[in-house]
Specification:
Blueprint: H1 2-17, H2 23-28, H3 33-48, H4 55-69, H5 73-85, H6 90-104, H7 106-125
Helix pairs in contact: 1-3, 4-5, 4-6, 5-7, 6-7
């Protein structure tokens, strides 16, 4: 069962961020390799791969939550890219981040928009939208 969850999670991660799928593993392998397996198995294998929402919607939710938290900059960057990879447009992401101002505050919205601007520029530099 554990291997099935993990493999389903890896498949989901690769669908939304194939370019950086191994980055989390690399970051955790020397200090907390079990945490990597838990994240992939639970977050991506059990939750994000559920059929109730498509990946685009799940990434909008994730970007919203990370933006509202205001203290998850690296994870927000990953999920901004994942949202674009899952089919979100830049305009949709900007609308989501503007709405954050209403419910999480203007500073959270401004910080998230600054991250989005950087991610958009990086992708443009690589010839990706």
């Amino acid at each position: 069962m554990e291997d099935e969850r993990f493999h389903r999670g890896l498949e989901t991660v690769r669908r939304i961020d194939a370019e950086n799928a191994g980055r989390l593993e690399e970051a955790l392998k020397d200090i907390a390799p079990d945490l990597y397996r838990y994240i992939i198995g639970f977050a991506f294998g059990d939750v994000i791969s559920r059929p109730g929402l498509d990946l685009k919607t799940r990434e909008i939710v994730t970007v919203s939550a990370l933006s509202a938290m205001g203290n998850a900059r690296p994870q927000l960057r990953v999920h901004l890219n994942a949202a674009l990879n899952a089919g979100c447009t830049r305009d949709e992401i900007v609308e989501v981040l503007m709405q954050i101002a209403v419910y999480a505050g203007i500073p959270a919205s401004l910080n998230a928009l600054a991250q989005a601007k950087e991610v958009f520029a990086e992708r443009e530099g690589k010839g990706r939208t």
